[in-house]
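Database export, one record per block. Field names are fixed; values are copied verbatim from the stored entry.
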Amino acid sequence: MGSYGFDCVFYYVSDLDRAIAFYTGVLGFALASRDAVARFVLNDVLVELVPTAEPELLSGRGNARLTLAVEHIESAIQDLRAKGVDVSEVKAVSNGRLATLKDPDGNELALWQYV
């Protein structure tokens, strides 16, 4: 068997236009390309939004999370809440601070501030 290489991080979405609006308008990602899927490149990592009509794929309960590094987590939370996004309270852990939010399909994302 050959070696494996990294391809992308992806989330299933029910409405590609709505998802693109969230990731560009709310999170500020730049849309890199769009055909059957939407692609964003974030710090050299390919992030894809993949439309599906299968509701069981939209559970948002997977273990993987797209984690976004922020310098000031409270400022990031304030900005997201001003845009109507429900963001959790900050949880302090040994090496940082964490908060979570969900995209319109319930996919969980995390904000992370190193300490």
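Remark 1: DSSP finds two helices and eight strands in the chain.
Remark 2: The first strand starts at residue 9 and ends at 13.
End of record.
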